[in-house]
Queue: 4 jobs
Job 1
Amino acid sequence: MKSYNWGILGTGNIAGKFVEGLQFVKDANIYAVASRTKAKALDFANKYHVQIAYGTYQDMIDDKFVDIIYIATTNNLHYENTLMCLNAGKAVLCEKPFTLRVSQLQEMIDLAYSKKIFLMEALWSRFLPTIEKVITLIESGAIGEPHIIKADFGFKAQYSSESRLFNSLLGGGSVLDIGIYPLFLSLLLFGKSLSIKALSINAQTGTDITTGMIIIHPKERMSILASSFAVPLETKAEIVGTDGTITLHRMFHMPTTISITKDGKTKKIPIKIKGNGYNYEAEEVMKCISQGKIESTKLPLSFSLELMKMIDTVLNHE
């Protein structure tokens, strides 16, 4: 596989974690970073050993040596930034959530298809060995017929109307920020929803602080999910079947531990992890591009669109 030059659009915490993971990816060159100010870009470049720092997004997008752009801006900018990159002919890995509205995502997908440019949502959990193992266990019948997923994600966040977690203009709210992970898992393992019931407690800004979700899927399957900025939830996931339970332990969306419980006995499932976990999604992007693909078969754009529709239903349950 050829070497690929990565451009990092945004200099926040998540961008730093992604670059740390990128260091474990063979043939990945951490080439450029862009921020709204040159000073921030230079600080990031010095900290993570990035070759070139740009003071505007467009300057990096216009760099002919950038092959792939990872977008790590706030949720409200993902749509705009992705269109900028696609229109310039750049392959894109965009942080979750892809967009704030279904119509925006559909426009992005249509543009990527029309230009035949690679596009993928940075739902890093999809490519972790832990998630891959859970899929294998379920498909092998390790817990019989799976019927219920119980998953949550919550932490106590200090309220501020200006925080990206609570500011509606920045795409705040617990569902968009962390509830997407339980929703992702339910869609991945149980498929599309037949019906969704949701209730939320909202902040003064109108964004949700805590949301509970019950989803009915085909084959008599149900997901019971929650997200919260008010309290620290267990942040684990359980897949309950007719013959046992698979547990993704605390911080289930990250590289973690897995166990399987059958007949009252629990056994830990060994998983080997490389890097910090963000490297797996980067490897998928480079593999797909090297094969001439414009989307991932493991995380196709149709999946992200269905996930966005589920989020939209949850957030507009009134």
Note: The chain has a mean pLDDT of 97.
Job 2
Amino acid sequence: MFIVPKNSGLNKCKEIAKKFYNSKILEVRGEDVPLVVSKMIKNSKTIGITGEDLFKEFLLENRENDLEILEREKWEDSYTLFGKPTLCLLGPKDKNLDQLKGKIRVCINSKYKRISKNYLNNLESKGYNFEKIYVSGSSEEMFSVNITDLIIDIVYSGYSAKKFNLEVYDKIFGSDIVVIGEKQKDLVKNLKWEKMGGIIPTIVKDFQGNILTLAYSNKESLSKTIKENIPYYFSRKREKIVYKGSTSGNTQELIKIRTDCDNDSILFIVKQKRNACHLNKYSCFDEEKKFDLNELYKKISDRIESNCKNSYTNKLVKNPRLLKRKIVEESAEVITENPKNKKRLIEEFADLFYNIFVYMALNNILIEDIEKENERRDGK
């Protein structure tokens, strides 16, 4: 999944995504791209693309996160005043900051609240005094009606600043385009290869937690796995690197890589196509794939992404009022159903869970988010 901005000012991001990546594309607000990617990487391979300024703002708000910049694309637009969109401090033309006395009113685009706060804190340490005003847009209009003395906002061509008789006092942050995704640890370097003569046990399980098989990795196979995001293993019998399913067609889609506390074994979390065992069983350990609530949520998410016109799920997504009404109706049916009719009561609960999961997926809320909230409450 590739998360891209739907903001018109970030159309370059969509162009890059469509040109370089063969993935499903989901459009959200540019400032929400890092948040959505951070939520979705928990259950699937997800990357995003957005302005570097918006990612910087996310990092300041979410210091403990699993995201990093995977690639950087130069903005390169001749219409930009500074070669790229640049967060600037602007003030009245033919003046400077030292000429503004007393408590200085600063109108700040709320998308850059934390970047601006850090910048202004530095100025306040030099003796300046600021009153901060946050707006979602139209910051120049705030200056034109004398609500603010200064503005912190993105400068692109500079035409808007010129129109309102503003000039740039300082450049705060220049923004390129960044592709973001999960942090890549230097797994190959940190693992203890010497313990088993250059190979490491690799446990493979599906996203439901079923153990599929035990395989082995060497430095080359793990490097290929990380680089291509496809599970490769070292076959001790054939003494070569193999791609799982290359002959049988029972391939795996890599979801995550984890290491144990001693750095001498690896865990691959995968999505298994058909069977993982050479005896034509789903698991070498006789584990069975179950249709649990996580599987239901994933199928709902996949259906939403497919945008299938004949899908009832997408009918609900496109009509939020209908979806909310169905949740109310199904809740009422659960409450009014005769508890002695257990079979029917289970069916009503299943209907309710389905509609709730659709509403959760529509709002990018994962089952894991609910579990974490319950864990927090249990801790209290």
Note: The mean pLDDT is 88.
Job 3
Amino acid sequence: MPDSPDKSTQQSGMRRKLSRYVIALTAVAVVVLVPLRMLSDEPDVDAQRSFRYLVQICKIGRRFSGSQGMATQQNVIAQHFAKFGAQIRYQAFDAPHPQTGMPVRMMNIIVSWHPESKERVLFACHYDTRPFPDRDRFNPRGVFVGANDGASGVALFMEMAHHMRDLDPKYGVDFVFFDGEELVYSKNDKYFLGSEYFAKQYRDKPPAHRYIYGVLVDMIADRRLNLFFEKNSMKYAPQLTRSIWNTARDLRIREFTRKTKHEINDDHIPLNQIAKIPTCDLIDFDYRYWHTTKDVPSACSGSSIKKVARVLLRWLENIPSPS
């Protein structure tokens, strides 16, 4: 019977075997795990950062057309998107004030990604707020900051800017911020000033590019988010509308409800009727605090903004060809 090795020799041998085993497992992990990470191409949308953007906009205060708050917001938007290398253009025009008739300087902001592309997709929101919370039963002349009705679309696009350069969409993309959506003091005042001007310019002075689709977002930060097929969207852009809800279904985002509800006049109407851009409206029209003093950040959720951003970013990579 040969002599048994001493204890230190046994331990040394065991360590060498263990080392070889760990190296082998590491090699397998590298082979298996790295491709899995590479296959996971969904952008890491940040809900907390999205909500911070919403709060940042709301801290400006009232942002109705022609106000100092609107001018401050315009600077915030321009500085933000410039940091990401987007092309920023302005579309200025005057509209009469509904009470005085004096001209109010309006400013649509157009933020372009891949500006060289001649076929493009339009994402739009309004970034003005109503002058007063006229639906508030207790304080209809109070301060209206428009957290969901105004700031939510801006915050969404500010968050999406973090991911646009990493995308390689088939089409160029424009974020358009419409002014004058609701410079409204009474029920007979004119809505949709910015989107109507934009649509007429597109129709009457055709640019070098063509918009194949448009997507309008409005009130998409509700803590109880629920987005239905909107009737005018299904009338003018059914293929587009269904494709976005199909994307949400693929991502298992249940807040996009595949039922038709509400017929809404919004900024997508001039885009469809005047510019002839097939455009759908993503809007939570069941928002409890619409046009009240309670439309504040605490009624909103960064998680809701994140869900909409995830859907739109994924949809951009799988845009259906126009029929």
Note: The chain has a mean pLDDT of 90.
Job 4
Amino acid sequence: MKGKLILVGAGPGDPELITLKGVKAIESADVLLYDALANEVLLNYASNSCIKKFVGKKPSIHQTQQVDINKLIVEYAQKGKTVVRLKGGDPYLFGRGHEEQVYARENGIDTEVIPGVSSFYAVPEVNQLPLTRRGLSESFWVLTGTTKDLELAKDIRRAAESDATIVVLMGMNKLSEICDIFKETEKSQTLITIIQNGTLPSQKIVKGTIESIQNLVKRAKMSNPAIIVIGEVNQVLEKL
């Protein structure tokens, strides 16, 4: 028997925000390798015989290394198993889905990708915050706050010079540096919204300016995972 790898986007957190095709893939899985940001409620779609393995990263929990995830995919698929790799959001966006797919294909394994609802637009949207709005923003940037070298992404500075809406993922640990860059470009009064655990019952949301946001975040005890939205579209939250 010939196995295969199916990369599935689990959506932003709310288990109902996965695609129907994604659910069908989980139902077909012989092996389910899931991340920390994939809602564990989705595991209920898997069959009783399905092997379920957590391969994500959580504080104080052993972190599965990427090389080990790659090996698991190949090991199971070469045994004829259908391996579903369940990743938070969308498999290709700021994840390592494409790397996993390439590794599998290099080892002779058939692959399929099922896109997911990405948190970068879904989390603001369920909170009625558009990334583009006539008269306020004609475009948007989507950036990672932290690179693979644990440094602040260089494009943050370029983005800060634009009038676009700026969405930063994985940026809470770099919030101070991000704010400093905006202050350097004389945008200390630019509006900013931070949403933690978006689409989940535990969601927190804080609104402020570049000048005030760090104190507000500290007061609200906010942390990762969170989405940072910077720009004038944040005005609409005050109007709703």
Note: The chain has a mean pLDDT of 94.
